[in-house]
Write a sequence for this structure.
């Protein structure tokens, strides 16, 4: 990434993930945020974040590592992982982001719930893209939105994920634009 | 407009941090405390909406903290955080007034559902308070009174601005007459024949605001049996008064800005653009400059509204208006209540001139109303006035200081339909102090 791309979003797949997923995420970021993306594998595994009692991965630790590894030209880093994520107070999370910060992570692990047949599996990239855009928007200081069709809606179940659209509502769009303007992008 | 305030009390840093970060992404203002003692210290200065409280902590136990939290602020909702093995304690906590409990680690959806339940519960209580208050506030229109130079300036600005149709922003402390100024601008404008539509931004719950303002089409949501016009449409040809604009949510600020720019909007569930022509007057008792700095109020909206600025002077800066206003209210209430009282004694006027009137003209109006009702003779005397300096002047009377304080608190509370925030503002004390006095004097609704 050159200097010209200082507003690039680095998308970092970690572990064995289908390339379609990464492609779908990049597409969503470019469309929703109007920012260029670059695929940049920043680490090989997230084993350092494994918790033996919970047998899950602590997402906050992944965020810290991501932020420290991100090259200075990367405006934001978005990691994609296949493992199940948690934060200590909750049983699981689909992803996590530094609110108004730089790093976010999304897990594919629970997003393939209910996808058995090949036809159904085709839904996965869309789900991952929505949740990735959701987490990335948190790094632009956006919070959860009541509109069930908005990307920033907090999804309590996989049904909610399928129900929401792949866009920001008009309020969240304005707040994102404000933030982009404020940070001079 | 203030975000819901949540306090997390847990002695484990990692629990505080992970819950705090999650709640911030969900849109709440989060504060954390690592012990019951520091939580109680925080509760002295800040009023929280929700407290998440760990049951097992070093030092004060969760149950002890719960009791004291509920004492210092009965309105706060407490959610106990428990681990396996302490569920019986959690159930005891619910008997002591906790709203619910969560077993850690908890499901993200259980947490979301619980917070929604608490918020709608609180909204319900607040709506009821507001309705009671509205029922009391009689819709009478009184013209503005004032001979002081600052008020004379206000009058001449009204005369100049009213016919122009410009957008107006009125700021000033509570009770300084912002509502009256808005109405006066409308009455003196060439749209005085048109409607004067009030939107109280602080009183309409956020989830109803959109349909209140824009109206809705039949079938837009389950309860939308008929198409209904919103207040913007109703204001067509007249004036839209956005009262307490400082309370409006970030989302509504975005919509309002757009409407002020192109004057076109859609009913909820509608696709036909609706055009309405109205003048906008907004009022606030908040410091919007400060709100902008804290990024709770949009600067672009502020400039749209602040085309002409009215700053209402507090009553303590124009004390020469006090006798005039007091006499005006005396005549009015004597007439309404058919009392023989017809004058205010020199001593009572002197007391009123010494007092600072934190609740401004509204507080003065309420003081006179009360004096008319409780007074015995034909003249209002200092001891008829529920103001603190009058209390000091009347030490020889038959009431103790504590009795007077209690009476004044009762009067202010009932005058304000037990709206704690407003009453505390008028009394010039913070809300937790008011709560502790209510408790100490055993005041009940
Ligand atoms: N100059 C005045 N002359 C006569 N009555 C007044 C005057 N100013 C205020 N009042 C009376 O005082 C009361 C409070 O006024 P108003 O509701 O306009 O205050 P406000 O500034 O809008 O307060 P808040 O910010 O609390 O809404 C009303 O009953 C009003 O009739
Ligand atoms: Mg008012
Ligand atoms: Zn989120
Ligand atoms: Zn939204």
């Amino acid at each position: 990434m050159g200097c010209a791309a200082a507003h690039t979003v680095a998308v970092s797949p970690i572990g064995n993930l289908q390339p379609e997923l990464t492609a779908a995420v990049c597409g969503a970021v470019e469309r929703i945020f109007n920012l260029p993306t670059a695929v940049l594998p920043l680490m090989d595994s997230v084993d350092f974040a494994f918790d033996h009692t919970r047998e899950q991965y602590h997402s906050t630790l992944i965020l810290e590592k991501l932020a420290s590894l991100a090259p200075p030209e990367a405006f934001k880093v978005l990691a994609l992982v296949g493992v199940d994520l948690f934060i200590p107070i909750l049983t699981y999370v689909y992803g996590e982001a530094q609110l108004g910060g730089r790093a976010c992570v999304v897990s594919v692990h629970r997003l393939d719930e209910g996808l058995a047949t090949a036809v159904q599996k085709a839904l996965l990239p869309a789900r991952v893209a929505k949740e990735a855009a959701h987490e990335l928007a948190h790094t632009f200081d956006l919070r959860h939105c009541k509109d069930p069709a908005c990307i920033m809606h907090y999804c309590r179940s996989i049904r909610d994920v399928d129900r929401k659209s792949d866009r920001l509502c008009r309020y969240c769009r304005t707040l994102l634009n404000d933030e982009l303007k404020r940070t001079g992008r | 407009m203030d975000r819901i305030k949540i306090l997390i009390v847990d002695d484990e840093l990692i629990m505080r941090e992970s819950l705090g970060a999650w709640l911030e992404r969900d849109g709440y203002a989060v504060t954390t405390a690592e012990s019951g003692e520091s939580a109680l210290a925080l509760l002295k200065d800040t009023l929280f909406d929700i407290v998440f409280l760990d049951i097992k902590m070093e030092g004060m136990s969760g149950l002890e903290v719960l009791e004291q939290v509920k004492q210092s602020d009965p309105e706060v909702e407490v959610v106990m955080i428990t681990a396996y093995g302490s569920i019986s304690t959690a159930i005891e906590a619910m008997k002591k007034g906790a709203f619910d409990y969560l077993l850690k680690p908890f499901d993200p959806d259980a947490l979301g559902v619980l917070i929604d339940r608490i918020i709608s519960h609180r909204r319900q209580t607040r709506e009821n308070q507001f309705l009671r208050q509205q029922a009391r506030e009689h819709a009478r229109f009184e013209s503005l009174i004032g001979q002081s130079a600052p008020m004379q300036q206000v009058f001449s600005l009204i005369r100049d601005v009213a016919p122009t149709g410009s957008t107006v922003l009125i700021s000033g402390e509570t009770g300084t007459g912002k509502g009256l100024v808005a109405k006066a601008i409308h009455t003196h404008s060439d749209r005085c024949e048109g409607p004067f539509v009030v939107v109280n931004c602080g009183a309409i719950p956020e989830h109803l605001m959109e349909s209140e303002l824009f109206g809705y089409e039949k079938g837009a949501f389950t309860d939308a049996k008929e198409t209904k016009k919103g207040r913007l449409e109703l204001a067509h040809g007249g004036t839209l008064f956005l009262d307490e604009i400082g309370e409006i949510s970030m989302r509504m600020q975005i919509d309002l800005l757009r409407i002020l720019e192109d004057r076109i909007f859609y009913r909820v569930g509608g696709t036909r653009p609706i055009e309405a022509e109205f003048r906008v007057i907004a009022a606030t008792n908040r410091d919007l400059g400060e709100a902008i700095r804290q990024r709770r109020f949009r600067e672009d909206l502020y400039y749209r509204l602040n085309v002409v600025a009215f700053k209402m002077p507090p009553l303590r800066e124009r004390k020469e208006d006090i006798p005039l206003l007091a006499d005006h209210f005396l005549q009015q209430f004597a007439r309404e209540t058919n009392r023989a009282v017809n004058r205010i004694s020199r001593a009572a006027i002197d007391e009123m001139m010494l007092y600072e009137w934190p609740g401004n003209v509204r507080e003065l109006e309420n003081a006179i109303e009360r004096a008319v009702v409780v007074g015995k003779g034909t003249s209002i005397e200092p001891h008829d006035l529920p103001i603190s300096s009058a209390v000091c002047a009347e030490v020889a009377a038959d009431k103790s200081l504590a009795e007077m304080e209690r009476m004044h608190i009762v009067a202010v509370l009932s005058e304000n339909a037990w709206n704690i925030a407003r009453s505390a503002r008028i009394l010039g004390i913070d809300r937790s102090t008011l709560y502790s006095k209510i408790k100490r004097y055993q005041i009940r609704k």
